[in-house]
Amino acid sequence: MNYETLCTQACKIIKEVGDYVRTAGKNLTWQQIETKGTNDFVTEIDTGAEERLVTALSKILPEAGFIAEEQTSTKRGETFNWIIDPIDGTTNFIHGLPPHAISVALMQDNELVIGIVYEITRDECFYTWKGGKSYCNECEIHVSNVQTVDKALIITGFPYNDYSRLEAFEKTMMYFIKHSHGVRRLGSAAADLAYVACGRADAFYEYALKPWDVAAGAIILQNAGGEVMNFSGGEDCIFSGELISCNGNLREELLSIIKPIMNYE
């Protein structure tokens, strides 16, 4: 398996689907928007984008299955599975706000081997593959070298329907508001991870996440020199629903703040 070649082919597909999303979004009406749950939206464009991704990705890797947000395909592969979010940041998208992104990762058995995040509004394609470096539009990217939280810019996100841990989570945000360069909420976890990977921010953390929100961004960030973990410092952050990402310098300090507040100690 040549991961670099497969990544290049997938990037081309994702950019083409991004063009579809960008063009279709100009004519989006509220009649095309459905509510899946509290503050959880889907549009005909989400579904159309996912169908296009599934069809094209099936041609370049026929044996692969899919873990896709809108479930336009429920096929599971024995070895390979694409993890797809056709529009991460749908609420931003329907309001015409950046960022919103296509997020596609390839998992081989239990290992991420390709990650692609295409931020549609800025026409920025972040990508990597197993054994490779991380790039944005063919330029290599790296995480920042910030040493301490008090000099860091932190990105986070709010759950749209799981408020069971919100009170504790608000305490972490209050800490970072008072003891960092600031806290940002951009509305797309995939873009958040890509922005940490290229050093625009120094850390991102959130709970109530889905695999398609974070799988692609996680491997991009790791291959850019960063680290990902769950709130207890463990490796299970793709399917656990919670994630901390950062440059390696901030790992222990972030854990020392988030871990006890979120009741892991």
Model description:
This protein is α+β, with helices and mostly antiparallel strands. It is 35% helix and 27% strand. It is built from seven helices and 14 strands. The chain has helices at residues 3-25, 44-60, 90-95, 166-179, 189-197, 211-223, 251-261; strands at 33-37, 40-43, 65-68, 80-88, 101-108, 111-119, 124-129, 135-136, 139-140, 153-156, 182-185, 203-207, 226-229, 242-247. Strands 3-4-5-6-7-8-9 form a seven-stranded mixed β-sheet, sandwiched between helices. A five-stranded mixed β-sheet has the order 11-10-12-14-13, with helices on both faces. A two-stranded antiparallel sheet has the order 1-2. It starts with a helix and ends with a helix. The relative contact order is 0.13.
**Beta-strand share of residues:** 25-35%
N-to-C series of helices and strands:
HEEHEEHEEEEEEHEHEHEEH
Roughly how many Å is the radius of gyration?
17 Å
Catalogue the unreliable spans: none
Overall average pLDDT: 95
How many individual β-strands? 14
Helix content: 25-40%
Neighbour order of strands in the largest sheet: 3-4-5-6-7-8-9
Strand-pairing-aware structural class:
alpha+beta
Q: Biggest sheet, in brief?
A: 7 strands, mixed
Alpha plus pi helix count: 7
Instruction: Compute the separation of the termini in Å.
Output: 42 Å
Regarding quaternary structure, what we see is single chain
Question: Judging from the principal axes of the Cα atoms, what is the shape?
Answer: globular
